[in-house]
Design goal:
Blueprint lengths: L1 E6 L6 E2 L2 E2 L5 E6 L2 H6 L14 E3 L5 E4 L5 H6 L4 E7 L13 E4 L3 E2 L2 E5 L2 H10 L3 E4 L6 H17 L9 H9 L1 H7 L1
Parallel strand pairs: 6-11
Antiparallel strand pairs: 1-7, 2-9, 3-4, 4-8, 5-6, 7-10
Helix pairs in contact: 5-6
């Protein structure tokens, strides 16, 4: 089986475990190359995470734009590298994502593909029916409230109101202006 790992970093020869938001040092993989490529851009640095995607009934990825032109703003003009690793042993699935796997060992890379513009690449996948972008105007009020509640929880957990230069605070200010204005 081939496992995929997306990264903004070129010329890697092996993948090394790093401390994750799950409290363990892992290398993350996906059996879906498109999911892996979503992670080749880091919208916010760790310990924060911003990857608003899910799957339709056929298993295709749906990226939800919780702010105007979110996908284009995040991925346009960004280069990503899709690393492929064959036959990894000792993989686990500690997340809720059905195609996501982890490994605690260093992993040799078998192949790599450079994607010069991730936005264009995903738009091509969209034409093939393998990827969808759900625009802001298609997001239900209930779904948006859930996202905003999660952001409020992040603000509270990391005491972001006292850290205006924090990258997550800046992300909220730039993309969720009303929420930012209510808290800062």
């Amino acid at each position: 089986m081939t496992f995929y790992h997306g990264s903004p970093i070129a010329d890697l020869k092996e993948l090394k475990p790093i401390l994750s938001e799950h409290g363990q040092a892992y290398v993350y993989f996906s059996t879906n190359p498109l999911v892996a490529l979503l992670y080749s851009v880091k919208p916010v640095p760790k310990p924060f995470s911003w990857y608003p995607y899910g799957f339709d009934s056929k298993g295709n990825i749906i990226y939800s734009e919780y702010f105007e032109n979110a996908f284009e703003k995040t991925y346009k003009g960004k280069t990503g590298y899709l690393y492929e690793c064959d036959d990894i042993s000792d993989v686990e699935q500690p997340t809720q994502i059905n195609c996501a796997y982890t490994c605690k060992n260093c992993i040799k890379i078998d192949r790599v593909t450079k994607i010069p513009d991730l936005y264009q690449y995903f738009k091509e996948q969209e034409k093939e029916g393998l990827f969808k972008i759900k625009p802001l105007n298609a997001i239900s009020e209930k779904e948006m409230n859930f996202v905003l509640e999660d952001l409020i929880s992040t603000i509270d957990k990391f005491n972001l109101t006292t850290h205006p230069q924090n990258p997550m605070t800046v992300f909220i200010k730039e993309n969720f202006t009303e929420l930012y204005n209510n808290f800062f």
